[in-house]
Each structure stands twice: as C-alpha cells, then as structure tokens.
Design goal:
Layout (H helix, E strand, L loop, with lengths): L24 H17 L15 H13 L10 H7 L1 H8 L7 H14 L5 E3 L2 E4 L1 H6 L11 H14 L15 H10 L3 E2 L1 H6 L9 E7 L2 E11 L3 E9 L9 E8 L5 E4 L6
Antiparallel strand pairs: 1-2, 3-8, 4-5, 4-8, 5-6, 6-7
Helix pairs in contact: 4-5, 5-7
C-alpha cells in the first residue's frame, strides 16, 4: 500500500493516566478522539469527552466507561493494549482480509469493509474534517479545508490494488482533488460523461469512481460505485452524510440517480 498513515493511528508511545507524568497533549487527543468515535457508534456508553489534550478526571471517567463497555477492569489508564482496542475499527478497516475474484470486486468489498467500521470525522480545535479516520485517508492531513472524499476513494483503490500487487499511481496521481482526477480521466480517455452514461448505463461499472459535476471541468464530490441499476447507482463515499453532502462527516452508503444528476465516471479498467 502507498497510503499507510493509518498505522500511526494505531499506537501511542506512552501509558496515559490522570495527571500522568508521561502524558502528552498529542497522544491524549488521540485517546479522546477514539473515545468520541466509540460514543458515536455507542451513544449510551458515556465515552464522549472534550478533545483538549488534557487527561483529567473527565477523560479518566470516559476511559473507565469504555473499559466497562469492553468488560475489562476499569482502571482509567490507557496503555498500548487498551489503545489498540480503542483503535480496532481503524485496524479492521485497513487490515481485515478482503476477498474478491478480480480488482473490481476487491474495490467494492474493501469499501464495504471500511463502511462496516463506521468512519467518522471529528471537530478538533474548532476544525472539522479532523480525527484519526481523516488523517488515515488524507496522509496525516486534517482540518476544515481538507475535504476528504477523494482521500477516501484513493485509499480504497490503493488498498484493493495492493492485494493484487498493483500500484494505483499507475492509474492516477496521488491527490485530494476531484478536479485533478476528472482532468486526468479526460486526458487518458477514462472519463465517461454523464450524458453518455445516461444513454448507455452499461458503461458504468462497479468499482469505478463517480465524480459529481459542479460544471463541465469542475467536480465537487466523489465516491465508489458499488452497484448499478436502471436509473440509479449504489455508492460508498466519504466526507458525506444522509443527504449526500460533499462536506459531511462520515463514510456512508448512498443511492444516487445518475439520470437526474450530473455524474461522470472514472474507469479503473486499466488496473483490472
């Protein structure tokens, strides 16, 4: 894999506890982030706490509540073993075995595996588009300006291609820009425009990348095609929400009508 920043999200250097001498602000924020991510999936767990880098009594209690949810001793202390349990969804998304008879199936199943592990962004230091999932998709970058839908897409393509010993960069450059991929698709004759797709839906393939047009040479959102129907596509996409926003807060499965939306399609065919 080319995109390996997720590995940094799986470890801490020191054991952390309330007012601990070895606590660090950065690693405490990582702990607090994972506690909040757990709370988003388990809202009754009592693990939501401020992401402020201060391991005080509130963070200690949130850790104890996490330990309670895991049926392990409620020490309020986070060592690497406990941190690994907290970070397990990220590890599963990137390292769980994925099966598929060809690259397109691997892309679809890789995207589904990420979706099953509930990737969410967080707000840290008043900046959206932040947190361990975003950093994993965006090669360590985060913050309000770092829209991460293309980072998610390229992570999925990279992960799937690497299972076949292929380098996704032979198909497209590493980028966080929908426009860059759209233009590259035009240059390499890999982009099916929405007008053509509407007239010939058989050109839309699972595992391909959809690009939602803002204008003819400007694209505002992207995701992976999971299934194709007569009028609609099923997708998995990052940085979105239930309404299909291009700046939402999660990875989500969506249904999009390609006959009423200006959706272009970038083919992964050359990698297959």
């Amino acid at each position: 894999m080319q995109k390996t920043s997720y590995q940094k999200e799986l470890v801490i250097k020191n054991t952390h506890e309330k007012n601990g001498a070895n606590n660090s602000k950065k690693e405490t924020e990582k702990i607090q982030s994972l506690l909040n991510l757990f709370s988003l999936v388990h809202p009754g767990s009592g693990t939501a706490t401020a992401i402020d880098g201060d391991f005080g009594p509130a963070t200690q209690k949130a850790v104890q509540n996490f330990q309670k949810a895991q049926n392990i001793p409620q020490t309020g202390i986070v060592d690497q073993n406990l941190f690994g349990i907290m970070a397990l969804p990220i590890q599963k998304a990137f390292e769980n075995p994925v099966q598929g008879g060809n690259l397109r199936e691997l892309i679809v199943n890789t995207a589904k595996n990420h979706l099953q592990n509930n990737p969410f962004e967080l707000v840290i230091r008043q900046q959206g588009n932040s947190g361990p999932w975003v950093r994993s998709y965006m090669d360590g970058k985060e913050g309000t300006d770092w829209l991460w839908c293309m980072g998610f897409v390229q992570t999925i393509i990279d992960q799937a291609a690497s299972l076949q010993g292929k380098n996704f960069k032979t198909l497209m450059p590493l980028t966080y820009s929908c426009d860059t991929i759209g233009i590259k698709g035009i240059e390499k004759n890999l982009l099916t425009r929405y007008q053509t797709a509407r007239n010939n839906p058989s050109l839309i393939k699972t595992g391909d990348i959809f690009l939602l047009q803002k204008s003819s040479l400007d694209w505002k959102h992207t995701g992976i095609v999971i299934n194709v129907h007569e009028d609609t596509i099923e997708t998995i996409e990052g940085n979105t929400n239930s309404s299909g926003s291009s700046n939402g807060n999660a990875v989500a499965g969506k249904i999009r009508n390609f006959r009423t939306s200006k959706i272009d399609f970038f083919s992964v065919g050359p990698l297959v």
